[in-house]
Design brief:
662 residues; Glycerol uptake facilitator protein; Aquaporin-like; transmembrane helix
C-alpha cells in the first residue's frame, strides 16, 4: 500500500515538473529581454512556495534541458553583455546631498518615480525589475550557494553572457569614481577643520587613494594579501571619521557634517564590496564570483533600508547634540539630600513668585484692545522676559525640568551590561528625580498663589486700576473648578512646547561650540577696541554658558504667547495651560470674587491645577526621554525595567518619592 502511494507521489511530481517546464519554455519564447526577468520573477512567486525552490527548479531545467538553456542564454545575452554598471555601483543607496530635508524628499520622489529608461544601464534595469517590494524580497533571500549552482549550470566555454574582463573594467571604473568622491569629501573644509591631522597629505584617505589608484589603473592582480592591505587602509579611514565624531562634546558638530561623514562611510563600504568583487573575479571561478556579486549587489537596491539606517545614525548624532546641554543642566535639578531638597523648594518659590507678576501683566494685556497679532506679540514678550529672568536668577520653573532630567536619566541608562542591582540604583535615581519634580511643583504653585493674592490686595489698596474683569476671573476659576477636559489637552500642548524649548537650548549650545562663536566674539576687532581683555573674557564666558538657556526660554515664551493664534486661525481648540500660571490666575480670580467659594470647590481647583501640571510633565518628560534615549542608543524597552524597579521601590517606601528620607 505504501509502495503504491510512493509511486503516485512520483507521478504527481513528474506531472507538476512537466507543467512547470512548459510554462518556463512559454516565458522564454516571449520577446523583449527585460520582460523576461519580470515574467520569471512573477512566475516564480506564483508557482513556487519560495524563491529557493524556484531557483533550484531553474537550475535543474538548465542542466537537463538544452532548449531551456539555449533560450535563456539567447534572452539574457543582449541584457548583460554590454550593460553599464557605474551609476548602480556609485550612486544607489548612497547619500547624494548634504541637506536632510532634500535627501528625504528626493527619496520620496525616487520611490514615486523611479529612474527607469530604455537604456543599457544596470541602475535602470534594477529599478524596473526590483521596484516592486515583493520582487525585491523574493530575489534577495536566495542564498549564495544557490546562485553558484545556477551560474555554474548557465555558464560554459562556448557561450558566456558575462564577459569577465568587461565586468572587471566596470568595477575598476566605479571604484575610481568612488575614491575620487571620498577624497574630495574628506578634504571638505567643515570636515577637515575638525581633523586631528593638520596636513592633508597625511590623512588616511590620501594613502588609500594612492594605493587604490595604483592597483586599479595598472590593472594589478588582486590577491588575498593585497585585498587585506587595502581593507586595513579603509578601516583607518573609518577610524579617522570616528575620531571626528568623538569630538562632538567638545567642539560641537553640525547636521550637515554628520550627513557628509555618513556619505563617506557609505562610499567606503561600497569600495570594500567592489574590491571584494575584483578579488573574487581574479582568484575564483566566474560562477563563484558572480554568485557572490549577485547576492551582495542585490542589497544595493535597498534604498529604503539604507536611507532609514543612515537617518537613524544621523538621528543619533543630532539627538546627542541637542541633549548634551540638557544632560549637564539636568544634574542640578535632581536632589539627594534634605538640604538640596529645601534649596529646590526655595528656588521654585522664587520662580513661582515671578510667575505671579507675569500673570498680572498678562491679564492687563488681555484686557486691552489689541489685534490678535499684537496681543500674541505682547504675550510672547511677557513670557520670554519672565522665563529668561527665572533662568538667570537661578530660580526654577518646574515644567522646565523634565527636558533636562530626562536627558540625565537616559545617559545613566547608557551602560553595556546591567545587573538587577543596577536597576535598583536606577529606581532610587528615579525616586530622587520624582521628588525633585514634586517639590518644584509645590514651590511654584504655593508661591504663585500666595504672591498672586498679595499682588491683588496690594494694588487694590494703593491703586484704582482694574486688576481683572468678571469675564476673565470667571474663566480662570471655572476651568479648574469644573475640571474642564480642555485644560488637560492644553496642558499637553504646553508640554510639547516645553519639550521643544529643551531641544532649542541644546541646538543653540551646539551651534555656539561648533561655530566657535565665543572665541570669535572675544577676538572681534570692534569689541577688542572698546572692551578690556579681562571684562571681554568674562562676557564671552557668560555668553557661552548662558546662550543655550536664554534661547530655549525665549523660544518657549514665543510658543506659549502665540499658541492661541493657531486655535483662532484653524478654528480648533488649541491653546496652552501651565501649572504655575494657572495657580497665579486662580489666585487673582478668587480675590476678585472675595473668596466666595466652598472649601470643596477650592480643593477641586487645586486638583485641576495639579492635573495641568501632570499633563505638562508627562508629555514633556516622555518626549524628552525618547529623544535622549535615541541619543545614547538605549532601547526604549529599558525604560519599562526602570519603571518596574521604581514601582517596587514605591510600594516599599512610598514617602521617599515625596520627601528625602533615608
Amino acid at each position: 500500500m505504501k509502495k503504491i502511494k510512493y509511486i503516485d507521489f512520483l507521478i504527481y511530481l513528474l506531472i507538476v515538473n512537466t507543467e512547470n517546464l512548459e510554462k518556463l519554455e512559454k516565458i522564454l519564447s516571449i520577446t523583449g529581454e527585460r520582460n523576461l526577468l519580470l515574467n520569471l520573477i512573477k512566475y516564480g512567486r506564483r508557482g513556487f512556495d519560495n524563491s529557493i525552490e524556484f531557483i533550484d527548479f531553474l537550475t535543474e531545467a538548465i542542466e537537463t534541458n538544452p532548449i531551456v538553456k539555449e533560450k535563456l542564454l539567447e534572452q539574457l545575452n543582449p541584457i548583460f553583455c554590454n550593460i553599464y554598471m557605474q551609476k548602480f555601483m556609485t550612486d544607489l543607496g548612497i547619500f547624494s546631498d548634504d541637506k536632510l530635508v532634500t535627501l528625504f524628499f528626493r527619496q520620496i520622489w525616487n520611490n514615486l518615480l523611479p529612474q527607469i529608461s530604455d537604456d543599457q544601464t544596470l541602475l535602470s534595469l534594477s529599478n524596473e525589475v526590483l521596484y516592486s517590494k515583493a520582487n525585491h524580497n523574493f530575489v534577495k533571500i536566495i542564498p549564495v550557494d544557490r546562485w553558484f549552482k545556477f551560474y555554474e549550470a548557465l555558464f560554459n566555454t562556448d557561450i558566456i553572457i558575462c564577459n569577465k574582463e568587461y565586468v572587471k573594467k566596470q568595477i575598476r571604473e566605479g571604484a575610481l569614481i568612488l575614491i575620487d568622491r571620498i577624497v574630495g569629501g574628506a578634504v571638505d573644509a567643515e570636515i577637515f577643520k575638525m581633523s586631528y591631522i593638520k596636513n592633508i597629505e597625511d590623512t588616511p584617505f590620501q594613502k588609500l587613494a594612492k594605493s587604490l589608484i595604483g592597483v586599479l589603473q595598472n590593472h594589478e592582480f588582486i590577491d588575498a594579501q593585497k585585498i587585506k592591505s587595502l581593507e586595513n587602509e579603509v578601516k583607518n579611514c573609518q577610524i579617522y571619521l570616528d575620531n571626528i565624531l568623538n569630538q562632538k562634546e567638545k567642539k560641537g558638530i553640525s547636521l550637515r557634517i554628520t550627513i557628509k561623514i555618513t556619505r563617506i562611510r557609505q562610499q567606503l563600504e561600497r569600495i570594500s564590496v567592489l574590491l571584494n568583487a575584483l578579488y573574487l573575479l581574479d582568484s575564483k571561478t566566474l560562477a563563484y564570483a558572480m554568485a557572490d556579486i549577485t547576492k551582495n549587489w542585490i542589497n544595493f537596491y535597498s534604498p529604503k533600508s539604507n536611507v532609514t539606517n543612515s537617518f537613524q545614525s544621523t538621528l543619533y548624532i543630532v539627538t546627542f547634540l541637542i541633549t548634551w546641554h540638557n544632560r549637564q543642566t539636568g544634574k542640578k535639578y535632581i536632589t539627594s539630600t534634605p538640604k538640596e531638597y529645601l534649596k529646590m523648594f526655595y528656588s521654585a518659590a522664587g520662580g513661582g513668585s515671578l510667575v505671579a507678576i507675569l500673570c498680572f501683566i498678562k491679564t492687563q494685556m488681555g484686557m486691552g484692545d489689541h489685534t490678535p497679532f499684537g496681543q500674541a506679540a505682547l504675550y510672547s514678550f511677557n513670557y520670554s522676559w519672565g522665563f529668561v529672568t527665572i533662568y538667570l536668577m537661578h530660580w526654577t520653573l518646574a515644567t522646565k525640568q523634565p527636558a533636562m532630567t530626562a536627558a540625565t536619566l537616559a545617559h545613566i541608562l547608557n551602560q553595556d551590561e546591567k545587573s538587577s542591582n543596577d536597576y535598583k540604583e536606577f529606581g532610587l535615581f528615579f525616586s530622587r528625580l520624582f521628588r525633585s519634580q514634586f517639590i518644584s511643583f509645590i514651590g511654584n504653585v504655593l508661591a504663585a498663589f500666595i504672591v498672586g493674592i498679595l499682588i491683588y490686595y496690594f494694588l487694590s489698596y494703593f491703586t484704582t486700576i482694574e486688576i481683572i474683569n468678571n469675564h476673565k476671573a470667571s474663566g480662570f476659576k471655572d476651568e479648574v473648578v469644573n475640571l474642564d477636559i480642555k485644560i488637560f489637552w492644553f496642558g499637553a500642548i504646553a508640554g510639547v512646547f516645553l519639550f521643544l524649548s529643551g531641544l532649542v537650548s541644546g541646538i543653540t549650545e551646539n551651534h555656539t561650540k561648533y561655530h566657535n562663536i565665543p572665541q570669535r566674539l572675544y577676538n572681534h576687532p570692534v569689541i577688542k577696541k572698546f572692551v578690556k581683555e579681562k571684562k571681554r573674557k568674562k562676557l564671552v564666558q557668560w555668553y557661552e554658558n548662558k546662550i543655550g538657556g536664554i534661547a530655549g526660554n525665549v523660544f518657549l515664551g514665543c510658543c506659549l504667547g502665540c499658541a492661541f493664534l493657531i486655535g483662532n486661525f484653524l478654528g480648533i481648540p488649541f491653546d496652552i495651560r501651565h501649572i504655575t500660571f494657572s495657580a497665579g490666575n486662580y489666585a487673582l480670580a478668587l480675590c476678585h470674587f472675595n473668596f466666595d467659594i466652598s472649601w470643596q470647590n477650592l480643593a477641586v481647583g487645586f486638583i485641576g491645577i495639579f492635573g495641568i501640571g501632570i499633563s505638562n510633565f508627562l508629555v514633556s518628560f516622555s518626549l524628552s526621554l525618547w529623544v535622549a534615549m535615541k541619543s545614547v542608543n538605549v532601547p526604549t524597552k529599558e525604560i519599562s525595567k526602570i519603571l518596574y524597579s521604581a514601582f517596587k521601590l514605591f510600594l516599599k517606601r512610598p514617602m521617599s518619592f515625596f520627601i528625602p528620607i533615608k
